[in-house]
């Protein structure tokens, strides 16, 4: 089973319901009058966090993925995929999945995900605090984020 196939099991109605509910909760708890302290003129503060994790499964279940441990023999053994997620004030807003060997490194997987994230596009009245895994240690990530004018 491919990663795309796994993701295709969620029907559009479930995705639409999730987006509606999370949008309502976000508006109520993070964008309401209390959050702005009674004034719509104040800038909002948004905490945007990014993280990724590896998930291992039987190689029989995954056609794609990174081999784990001993060499695979006729589909035996395990493969792993890396899931990356972006949260805005605690609500999931974006996700990515990869089975490529290069994405074992947090510098590659999470660094690329943060830089390409649509979650970083914000309104002029929004101040952002970005939180991401300390596994990102590459100097190249810092150079790239400065080129994109991210204030980390």
Task: Provide an overview of this structure.
The chain has 152 residues and is of the alpha+beta class. The protein is built from four helices and five strands, in the order H-H-E-E-E-E-H-E-H. The longest helix is centred in the N-terminal third of the chain and has 19 residues, at 12-30. The chain starts with a helix and ends in a 5-residue tail after the last helix. The relative contact order is 0.16. Mean pLDDT is 71; it is low at 33-39.
Short overview:
The chain is of the alpha+beta class.
Number of strands: 5
Strand residue content: 25-35%
What's the SSE pattern?
HHEEEEHEH
Stretches with pLDDT under 50, minimum 5 residues: 33-39
Distance between the termini: 38 Å
Give the fraction of residues assigned to helices. 25-40%
How many domain units? 1
What is the number of helical segments per DSSP (H or I, 4+ residues)?
4
Q: Please give the radius of gyration in angstroms.
A: 19 Å
Kindly report the average pLDDT value: 71
Mind describing the biggest β-sheet? 5 strands, mixed
| C-alpha geometry | flat
Structural class: alpha+beta
Protein name: Transposase
Topology:
Elements: H1 3-7, H2 12-30, E1 44-58, E2 66-68, E3 78-88, E4 91-98, H3 106-116, E5 126-132, H4 139-147
Protein name: Transposase
Name a few traits of the molecule.
152 residues; 29% helix; Transposase
């Amino acid at each position: 089973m491919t990663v795309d196939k796994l993701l295709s099991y969620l029907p559009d109605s479930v995705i639409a319901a999730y987006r509606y509910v999370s949008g309502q909760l976000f508006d109520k708890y993070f964008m309401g009058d209390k959050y702005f302290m009674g004034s719509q003129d104040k800038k909002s503060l948004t905490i945007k966090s990014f993280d990724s994790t590896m998930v291992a499964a039987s190689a029989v279940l995954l056609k794609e993925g990174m081999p784990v441990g001993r060499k695979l023999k006729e589909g035996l053994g395990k493969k792993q995929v890396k899931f990356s997620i972006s949260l805005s004030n605690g609500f999931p807003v974006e996700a990515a999945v990869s089975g490529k060997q290069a994405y074992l490194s947090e510098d590659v997987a999470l660094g690329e995900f943060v830089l390409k994230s649509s979650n970083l596009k914000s309104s002029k009245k929004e101040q952002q605090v970005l939180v991401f895994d300390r596994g990102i240690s590459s100097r190249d990530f810092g150079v790239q984020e400065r080129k994109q004018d991210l204030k980390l």
